[in-house]
Amino acid sequence: MNTFISTLITGTANGAIFALAALGLVIVWRGAGVVNFAQMGQAMFTTYIASNLINSGESYWLAFIVALISGSLLGMIIDLLIMRPLAHKKSSSSTKTLAATIPVIASLGILAILQALAGIFWAGEERGFPTPVNSFYFKNGAGTLPFSAFNLFVIGVVLIVLLLLTYFFTQTGVGLGMRAAALNPEVARLSGIKVSRMRTLSWAISGAAGSLAGLLITPSTNLSPNTLDLILIIAFTAAVVGGLDSPLGAVIGGLILGIGIALVTTYGSPENVFLAILFLLFAVQLIKPNGILGGKQVRRG
Amino acid sequence: MDKGKKIWRKNLIKSLTLGVFLFLLSFTFEPYNQGQLALVLMLFIGVLSLTVLTGASGQISLGQGALMAVGGYASASLITNLGASIWVGFLVAVSATAIFGLILGTAAARVSGPYLAGTTLVIALALPSVANRFESVLGGDVGLIVDFGTPPAWISNLIEVGYEQWQLWVALPVALTALFFTSNLMASRAGRSWQAVRDDEIGAAVSGIPVARTKVIVFVVSSAIAGLGGALYGLRGLVGPSVYPVSLSLTLLTAAILGGVGSIAGAFIGTLIVVFLPDLIDWAISGLAISEQFSNYLPSLLTGVLLLATIIINPAGVMGAGHRRKH
Amino acid sequence: MKIRGSQTKRWVIGIVAGAVASTLAIAPSQAIPVRSEVGVSATEIVLGMQLPQTGAASPGYKKVDDAMRAYFDYVNSKGGVNGRKIKLVVKDDVYKAGLTISTASTLINKDKVFAMVGSVGTQTHISIIKDINRRGIPDLFVNSGYSGFYIDPKKYPTSFAALGTYVVESKIEADFLKKNYAAELAAGKVGILYQTDDFGRNVVAGFKQQGVIFPAANTQKFVAGSQGLGLTAQVQALQKAGVTLVVIGAVASATAITIGTAAKLGFAPKWLVTSVGSDATTFKTILASQGQSAAAAAFLLTGVISASHAPSPGEDTDEFVVAFKKINTEFNTGAADDKVWDNNVLQGMNIGYLTTAALMGAGKDLTRKGLIAFMEGKGATLSSAALSPLSYSSKTHEAYNSFWIGAYDANSVLKPIGGTRVLNTTDSADGPITVSTYKRPAIAADALPKVG
Fold first, then answer.
1. Residue A158 belongs to what domain range?
2. Residue B319 has what pLDDT?
3. Which residue from C120, C80, C83, C84 is spatially nearest to C104, judged by alpha carbons?
4. Which chain B residue lies closest to C51 (C-alpha atoms)?
5. Contact A101/B113, CB-based, under 8 Å?
6. Sequence ranges of the domains in chain B
7. Could you say which residues from 143 to 182 on chain B have a Cβ atom under 8 Å away from some Cβ of chain C?
8. Could you give all domains of chain C from N- to C-terminal order, each with its CATH number?
9. Dihedral, CA of residue A84, residue A89, residue A90 and residue A92, to nearest 10
């Protein structure tokens, strides 16, 4: 098998997971106007919950579902306890730009707390995490094909999630309500949409998406309180590259990052990966500040 | 005498008073607290750089630690490779970081809010890669060993100076210079025009303030201050990637938030809190039977809680400057 | 200028409040110890240690201090050293050098430690080594294989190693490859995966010193700490290059990820793992919780080649292992996970044992100078669980310069290749590799070191 093609496939499999994480960021940004730097901290936390269930003998799928539910609950709790009170304070804050960064700071505080709690609860020990389907690469006679059933599973799951979300946001009343609340809260409120409830819902959906990303990425690395820090940075870059307010952009951004990192690692030097990410981030912000698929409207913040 | 000069003089007196006060206070301190106070002064400069950036532009940077690293590397490579004195190192650190800030500011002028926060975070993360790429000059991931050295003979002949005390004596004039400069700047015409841009870009543009250029200048000044703090911080023993990690940037931000963004006095108070928090925790739990596992994670847990509590209870921090300065 | 007025007021309040706060924060001055030496009283010796107990670099290493303390507690239960109990004060530096400097200051100035012992980490220790040495504080049994700390005692007179250096180990491993895998080397079938830091680079340098130079196509790297992104691309590249033996110069978690990933890719070369990454517990924990059965994880480890200066923690018949395991069970008060017997616990126990021996050797009139003089003069005569002698002298402060090469058996115990253990000795420079005839002295019945 050709090196280029196998690099592409490895990159796509990782990229699909980055896309999920980026999608989580985009949903909260669209729905609540917050870039949530705690997202992968939440995902780490729920992956630990799943890992504990599996280690105590429960099935993968039960753990999977519990992780997704606790992910959305965690998202809701963060909104209700922290972000909503902050949003109410926003109006009294001194400047617009500062108001936009306060939730960012809050999310960093949440990240610190989640990582500390994970350390306290689970001793900060390093673990692995299983896959629901075989992660051994397919055999082709004597050689191997450059992908596994798990790779296909990941790509399939991401596609399904994307389709479900598209359907949800374009075809269902609640989804349309969320979009309306995000685009113009005042008008939405007047037409009877419970704007703050819609925001909480964004946090819940995003929390689940982040959790899913955590469940899918940890099998190829390891699980510790800090493992997913890097994934957040990549997801953020992916979201900015694709356009922070575009779900499809997040997916494209995730794939660009996944494939890009694989290519730089294989053909360049792994030492250049972070420099390449930084370069990409700057280039996109200078050339196309709203991202590849970002809307035309002036950016918030 | 015009107002500008008055403020100038007032700030000079205030900075000198603080300096003399801390200088005298340091004699009553044990070496440990002399070192802690020196650390407060070093980080205070870093927090000041954030105060300038946030107070003057409303922006938050999560990469201020990386700017400190630029200053640290600039001075340390000069000191280790050319044997320059630390004072020359400070000047070079400021110039190098200002240039870096110019490049960064030009690129980042169009970036704002959470975008800037994320972008600066990526910069902080990319630092070890840069140090490894230019290993021969920057020492790779082990870095460059530098320190405050020993006091010159004319001081040590006069009085015995401990290592911590010497750290403090070097840090003090540097920090006071930064303080004096910053407090003048924030009160100056330029500083006021920056705040005008922060509060209302369009309004500022209408009244003839060059918005884009102003933003870049804010970056340059903020970077230069961070570079100075970084050079000083590196002299504690090492300039290397693990001295300026992402968490340093977050520490600076925490200090700025706790004290009150945009407030100079708040910057000082916030820095005191973050530096002395571990000591306070040690003191508070010393009699309690809690597991090592819990106490190890307590500093980061409490930092997170304090951060959240501050912005929920009073986003303007201890000094509450943000609210009052509203126009 | 009303605005300015209120600002000024707040400014002044700020400074006053700050001054008050800093005054309040001053710890009450401690009583001057009765004896003249810092950290030593008639009844106690205070030792300090810095290591990552939290954060990304903490897994594994955070067990070392608990094991050391367990051994000290055991010594204390037997009356201590010359009637003095050993107290170990540990500070978490999260593997961030900026914090190491602060925690070292706490240990030196506030806890007033007599000596530093067993500190973990190259990048962190380098930030304080100059200061510790300038103050003349003994810096014993540093857990870093970075040769720069030890090969010039004039530069760092108080620092002594607890490990063999990375260079020594990789020279011996390279020699092993040349003798046993000459055909593979000649055919360019040997590759390497290493992390791009001082450790990884020293590994490459050690192999190079022995003339083992890896072709570019067989050389893969990753930024230390970035294994969270997976190492699939690197492992695939090695697979494509057609290598049949891969050297891994990486920490334990990255080593486990590498071998686990290779298994998934159907890539089954011979592995040679440097001792840093060769931790059976970490390996099996990560692979087993990846959903592989314990048997599958053990299978992947079977046959993996590694080097060691000590017995394998799995050697249940080794008298030191037996004694240390018993002490660990009885005296380790760490968290449940931190007590699990493995390489890190063995290493911690061994440092506890060596520290006790050094304190005994320095005599009843315990001084920093006396301790360092003992370490330089007689440190090399100390024995420990290690199968290698110690190399301390006035010319070098390296610890173990002998390694034996083994392979993991089906029970995850590192066993000598060929059945008999052969210890090879060399130095961190260009010295030759010779076979050591050292015989480790037996452990005493009370598991306490006997000195002098």
1. 3-287
2. 64
3. C120
4. B296
5. yes
6. 3-245
7. 143, 145, 147, 163-164
8. 44-164+313-402 (3.40.50.2300), 167-308 (3.40.50.2300)
9. 160
